[in-house]
Amino acid sequence: MSNSNLFLKSGFLRAPLQNGVGRFVPQLQRIVFKFCKTHGASRGMRDFIEQDLLDFAKQNPNIVVYMKPRRHRSPVIVAEYLNGDRFWMSMHNKTHDEITKWVEVMRTQQGDIAATRLRKLQYTDHPSIQGPWTPFTFKDPELNVASLPDSKYGANDRLPMSATEKLRLMFEQQKLNESDIKTAE
Fold first, then answer.
1. What secondary structure does DSSP assign to 99-122, as a single string?
2. Percent of the chain whose predicted confidence (pLDDT) is above 70
3. How far is CA 178 from the centre of its chain?
4. pLDDT tens for residues 137-169?
5. What are the tens digits of pLDDT across the range 37-72?
6. Cα atoms found within 13 Å of the Cα of residue 82, Cβ hemisphere only
């Protein structure tokens, strides 16, 4: 196991601001498209801007969209979320379809979760002072000292006899018959 997770920020995986409890609040706040107007690596970004950017902005009025042309620089998308996370991704030589998919991923996620070291798998705002529940939480403590199987605790008296048990009884009966024959002689 590597220690690379030591350099990641630590946190909990939880829904931001109780999202989805009352109403859904989209987490993507701002998206910035940085591209070059003439560079060949920005062709996919320029195609996305020409064909799909207006539809994206109309369908998502809660997201602020910026375009930042830069000369002779590689295309980049920067997404900023409500929790303060910034997700930066290079779109160097990506096609129009790949950029469309990445924009959709950025729109639907809640921040840069992949770069977070999880402290626990569960998180709650109101932890219990009684401890975690287990299947034995409300069991009778008398079971701890009982000798099982016991009919008081639901022994398996109602189950039919197993084949092994039948063979054992037949063997014991055969031994008794042999010993009775020897004593009679």
1. HHHHHHHHHHS-S-GGGEEES-S-
2. 75
3. 67
4. 778 788 788 887 777 776 666 667 889 989 999
5. 999 999 999 999 999 999 999 999 999 999 999 999
6. 14
In degrees to the nearest 10, what's the CA dihedral of 141, 143, 144, 146? 140
In this structure, the chain runs to a length of 185
Q: Are 151 and 157 in contact (CB under 8 A)?
A: yes
Question: Token pair for residue 53?
Answer: 């950017």
Alpha carbons 180 and 173: distance in angstroms, whole number: 11
Cis-peptide, bond into residue 149, ω within 30° of zero: yes
Contacting residues for 67 by C-beta, under 8 A, at least 6 apart: 32, 33, 35, 49, 53
